[in-house]
Specification:
Number of strands: 8
Shape: globular
Structural class: alpha+beta
Strand content: 35-45%
Largest sheet: 6 strands, antiparallel
Number of domains: 1
Radius of gyration: 17 Å
CATH architecture: Roll
Number of helices: 3
Distance between the termini: 37 Å
CATH superfamily: Hotdog Thioesterase
Helix content: 25-40%
């Protein structure tokens, strides 16, 4: 139940799906003409937040961001395509997978550049954490996205713990 006593019900992976695009311009590049990591993280946070709001029909705030993998650069003039979706929920939290890929709009080529997992907390009208819907994946495509995110987060956490001998 949320703060009004209403059961938030369920929502689907697809209901949260968000895609944004950003043209990489000079203000968001480093001295090599590539995307600044901070700019990419900013775009990812916005995309994840929109996915969380679409899913929960609530304002959301960033609670955490897991290890970020910068797989490859985004070059000046390329388009960054940022995709996010909710794949898991807690009582008041939403886990969102966010992926970024670079697109050369002139050649039609794409390649992955960045990935991470975010956790957002939904806020009620009074600004305190409130319940979120349970996530469902009614289609094979949605279930595949959800399974991919769950396994990807497991692999990422396993790699980090092995790297630091935790």
């Amino acid at each position: 139940m949320d703060e009004t006593g209403t059961d938030p019900g369920t929502a689907t992976v697809a209901e949260s799906y968000t895609e944004m695009t950003e043209m990489l311009l000079p203000n968001d590049t480093n001295n090599l003409g590539r995307a600044l990591g901070g700019a990419v993280l900013h775009w990812m946070d916005i995309c994840g937040g929109i996915a969380g709001m679409r899913f929960s029909s609530r304002e959301v705030v960033t609670a955490s961001m897991d290890h970020v993998d910068f797989i490859g650069p985004i070059e000046m003039g390329e388009v960054a395509v940022i995709e996010g979706y909710v794949f898991n929920t807690g009582r008041t939290s939403l886990d969102v997978k966010v992926d970024v890929h670079a697109e050369d709009p002139l050649k039609g080529e794409e390649r992955p550049t960045t990935t991470s997992f975010f956790t957002f907390v939904a806020l009620g009208d009074d600004g305190s954490p409130t319940h979120v819907p349970d996530v469902t994946a009614p289609t094979p495509e949605e279930q595949a996205l959800r399974d991919d995110a769950i396994e990807g987060r497991r692999e990422q956490l396993r790699a980090v713990t092995e790297r630091y001998d935790l």
